[in-house]
Write a structure and sequence with these properties.
Blueprint lengths: L1 H18 L16 E6 L5 H12 L3 E3 L6 E17 L5 E15 L5 E13 L5 H35 L2
Helix pairs in contact: 2-3
Length: 167
């Protein structure tokens, strides 16, 4: 009886949400001044540049070629490192912390520059018996960390713009 009621309520709530035009915010918090910007990087085809470009596009930000009077987001550096946290009894690495540090600069149309950065950490359990599977899992984790760092950079850009408008 309760299972049927739960199913009906779940179905009704999904129908109500889809019928009222509900959708998740994508770029709603980004001010108009940041809706169009130039993305600069020393390697535009690096994994971090691609992740940042993807997150900007997901937030409805137009990325254009170099123009005057447009905000520039410069990806300065990306540092990936790992640190052993624990080891197995036989001396093999058991757990690592993967660390990603991204440094960027926002240059406004008035030529003022502001540094922003993102740091993302993630634990990774290493098992030498499944080395191939763990290397694929590690790459998936790195990709997720890049996406998180890109979201952090975008949040800091929004906070910076709000702070500058508040002056």
């Amino acid at each position: 009886m309760f299972k049927k009621i739960k199913t009906v309520l779940l179905g009704a709530s999904i129908l109500a949400i889809s019928a009222c035009g509900f959708h998740f915010q994508n770029g709603e918090l980004i001010p108009n001044e940041l809706r169009t910007l130039v993305l600069e990087s020393s390697d535009p085809h690096s994994d971090m540049s691609i992740a940042l470009r993807r997150q900007l596009q997901a937030n409805n930000v137009n990325i254009v070629e170099s123009q005057s009077n447009i905000t520039v987001l410069r990806l300065n550096s990306t540092k990936m490192s790992d640190q052993v946290v624990s080891i197995f009894k036989r001396g093999h690495e058991a757990e690592k912390i993967l660390m990603l540090e991204v440094q960027a600069t926002v240059r406004l149309p008035n030529k003022q520059s502001y540094p922003i950065s993102a740091n993302v950490n993630h634990t990774f359990f290493d098992n030498s018996r499944a080395a191939l599977a763990k290397s694929v899992e590690k790459e998936v984790i790195w990709n997720d960390m890049r996406e998180q760092a890109a979201r952090q950079l975008i949040s800091q850009m929004i906070a910076l713009q709000a702070q500058l408008q508040g002056k």
